[in-house]
């Protein structure tokens, strides 16, 4: 991309109130960059329902926000991530049901993991899988989000890779409620069809102070990988 542009994130795609869902923003930037594997760094909250400048960069990436105050930047990257095997569909379905039955503290009206109607959110509900160092969710993307070919748009595939990292940090590590995505590196390996069953899952890679690094993957119900990612989440600063 060589010319300036702008995007408006609809309020539907919000993570926290008034703030665009990070997975969706990352997916939009990744798609605009055209690279197979992309790293998106977040530098500030992206608003909803307001035009935000989008422009190409000299290194083949994409920048969102004003030059003096960028909100997010994407660039081609590598992702040497060895994803563990996906849990079974039954294991993932049981985990998702535990999440729905007793939502953990810190759940907000998020497009990715909020308790929304099927046509208003992705509803990726990850909870721990007993006996595995994973959180997982059985997930069927709603046809409400299908493109003309019945596929889930790339930006929403990235969305399914975002929230699982949050819940891996919460359930498997020491991450606190209110943490935000600071960076998300991902690659989509194959198309994702709406109305078909998938397993979204995540695992803890490392922690250091307020920083938490997680891996996440999306697989078919039979365990074939569709997308993988690595995310850095940062805890909110302690109250003074």
UniProtKB/TrEMBL annotation:
InterPro entries: HotDog_dom_sf (IPR029069). It comes from the Bacteria. This is Hotdog fold thioesterase.
